[in-house]
Structure prediction request, 749 residues.
Amino acid sequence: MANINLDTIKDRTFDAIVIGSGASGGWAAKEFAEKGLKTLVLERGRNVEHVKDYPTTNMYPYEFDHRLETTYADKQANPIANRCYAYKEDSQHFFVKDNEHPYIQEKDFDWIRGYQVGGKSLLWARQTQRWSEYDFQGPQRDGFAVDWPIRYGDISPWYSYVERFVGISGNKDGIDTLPDGEFLPAFPLNAVEDHFKKSVQSKFKDRYIISARCAHLSKPEPIHIEQGRVKCQNRILCQRGCPFGGYFSSNASTIPWALKTGNLTLRPHSVVHSVIYDDKLNKAVGVKVVDTESLEELEFYAKVIFVNAATLNTNLILLNSKSARFPNGLGNDNGLLGKYVAFHNYTARISAEYDGLLEYRTDGRNPAGGGYIPNFRNVHKQETAFLRGWAAAFGASRTNVQDRSGAGIDLKNSLLDNSKWGNWNVHSHMMAETIPKENNSVWLDSEKIDKWGVPLLHISIDYAPDDWQRRADYYDQMTAMYEEAGFTNIKTSDDPRRPGNDIHEMGGVRMGHDSKTSLLNKWNQLHLCQNVYVTDGACMTSTGTQNPTLTYMALTARAVDHAVRSLAKGEI
Amino acid sequence: MKESKINRRAALRTMLYIAGGTLVLPACFRESGSKTIGLKNLTISEQQELILGEIVETLIPVSDTPGAKDLLLHLFVLNMVDDCHGPEDQKVFTDGLKAFSVMLDKPSGKTFMELSTERRLLFLINLQDQNVEEVKTFYSITRNRCIQGYMNSKTVMTDMKKYELIPGRYNAYYKVG
Prediction:
């Protein structure tokens, strides 16, 4: 019997454990497995195998009972999930249902989650921009949060490393606020997007409209073909999972790549309860897991542990990792764990019409979505009443117009008329930086637990007055730029979305220079427990204005490299 | 035997895709006089279903291409109202349908069902001047869902508007005309 016990402990011992299989966890898995480490990936949800588990991917709109609408009953049962733009009849099986995984909203917060192998990498908007030196300098220059312990030069080679494998479409635009990367050909701007670009760039200093950079294979390289991925087919049905692997997801890319090495063990249905800290060895030795099917408690062991459970669940796991040494959560001597959570403010839109360039329209579909306006506010010096700035999406489109009034054969003929095209519709939405604030925080309930015995998470995160100043500036500046371009019928509209609905929650386990003011060091190790790394959104010291996933992936590859070197040197 | 059963089932499924609802069975499949089957929330009589069929057919009539009844859009409307609208909408819809059934055409004193095809069209067009709120709401829901069902039907998406599942291209400067 004793032998069997020993054997199972051996079976449950790995070189590295990665918690989570989304964009950052998938990268940790790939890097560890490629470097020859026996790696265990723990995923709380079910397995989703590339192509095989994309049940709706090849369905026509008329094959959906409700033509992609979710039902009234579903909206009543899952108001949080239903508020996500990507949650529709074709994708709802990849989202967490509200009642299955409750949390406590101290303030309105939409926690959008995808519990399955691949996590939200199946569902993301695939926009990928590098941070610039200005973003990393922000907190220090402007005196908020804490100074980032890294600068652009530290991460730049890792951006390149990740971009080559992921496949990023974009132009080398030569803009210092949004550094160029290793690009596949960009998806082009259309006639009116180009018109706006020229108008803005000729009238406004340091303002640019570029082709949105995105994780789509516009022209695959051999490294992408080797992953089994081929050219993006412009379907824009990405949230169903892509049978071509045309966009990057863990499922299409890093997870199968890691599996091919023979070094990866992928364990779905495994909720991580906590990281196990050994008070004698002064380090983490493994993780405690609840199998969601058998409800059995299991322990797994490894020399190094990467926590990539997605921002708020990473906070939750660390807060729940209590020991005699760390009674308030792993590495949390300073009490800052779960605090200074921030997000992106997406609450503003501006639309207009343009009646020029009517000799053009578009044909096919653009997976990049159109243009991107990098932040130009407060870059070189403080110039407004608010700190930092905003980026924006920008796009122009034309649609067939039909007269839908009336009835009878006239209505029918009008509906079938493909010949009339309306004016161009132009649209933009804001993606503003928010300032991390101590009271924007998460903590564990002292009594309530979920069905796996894990405490429920309290979430208390809200907008602040400076968020509305940034929004007012976005409206002012965009209106001026629209007017300059000759757009008409300009309409601003507040988007009443709640925090969390941007799905860019970041922080709570922030990086910094020291263990007094931060949780993680410049290599993403917990200052006080250095064989535990956090490289998902939880590590972010500030938010920038960029879509953050590319940065998480680059930080992950960099951190794994550090971990493997540290293991070899016996440092962790 | 087994094979023919599968074929029949496949044929039925294809037909229901056209209808847009695997949950609603067309009237001709059921015992005459029975209530509509397959609806979870709405109570619709066979007569009301027939009226709805004539309304959608008046909106989008058969010509050299299929009309609304061919495409079973009245059943699509019912399926959507049953599943995607809340209880308030559903009540107004059924109340409005009831009131619509007994409304009389001004000059002739006939109900919608007693009118000729041309008069039915006028009857619907004149509805917007009516001041019976539930009828207007009922008609508006029916109309919008009928147009949605038509534009998203296999027939229109395959033969007329040519929806592309896999475009494989993006032309940013496409010349119009």
User: Anything to note?
Assistant: The first strand of chain B starts at residue 170 and ends at 175. The CA atoms of residues 61 and 67 of chain B lie 5 Å apart. The two ends of chain B are 54 Å apart (CA to CA).
